């Protein structure tokens, strides 16, 4: 699973299997946001809204389970 960690100037920092990687921002659709789960199609990265929402719900549930 590829997740956008953050944007740094003209770079996008991606987390993949707990490893951070840098990619040129030009490879990403303008609709991409921090925290989005992304997928590559024809050399361009796009957000997967369904997977992003599932991930966010899972994180919220984990925090609730921890009492946070």
Low-confidence parts? none
Number of strands: 5
The portion of residues assigned to helices is 25-40%
Structural class: alpha+beta
What's the CATH architecture name?
Roll
Radius of gyration, in Å, reads 13 Å
* Domain count: 1
Major β-sheet, in short? 5 strands, antiparallel
Key structural traits:
single chain; 68 residues; SH3 type barrels; five-stranded antiparallel sheet; 25% helix; elongated
What does this structure look like?
This protein is α+β, with helices and mostly antiparallel strands. It has one domain (2-65): SH3 type barrels (Roll). The protein has one helix spanning 49-65, and strands at residues 2-8, 11-16, 19-24, 37-41, 44-47. Strands 3-2-1-4-5 form a 5-stranded antiparallel sheet. A hairpin with a 2-residue loop joins strand 4 (37-41) and strand 5. The longest helix is centred in the C-terminal third of the chain and has 17 residues, at 49-65. It is elongated, with a radius of gyration of 13 Å. The model has no long low-confidence stretch (mean pLDDT 96).
Topology:
Layout: E1 2-8, E2 11-16, E3 19-24, E4 37-41, E5 44-47, H1 49-65
Compose a concise summary of this entry.
The chain contains one helix and five strands, in the order E-E-E-E-E-H.
């Amino acid at each position: 699973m590829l997740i956008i960690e953050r944007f740094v100037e003209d770079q996008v920092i991606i987390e993949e299997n707990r490893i951070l990687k840098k990619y040129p921002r030009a490879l990403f659709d303008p609709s991409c946001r921090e925290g989005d789960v992304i997928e590559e199609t024809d050399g361009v990265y796009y957000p997967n809204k369904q997977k992003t929402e599932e991930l966010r719900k899972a994180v919220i549930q984990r925090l609730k389970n921890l009492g946070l």
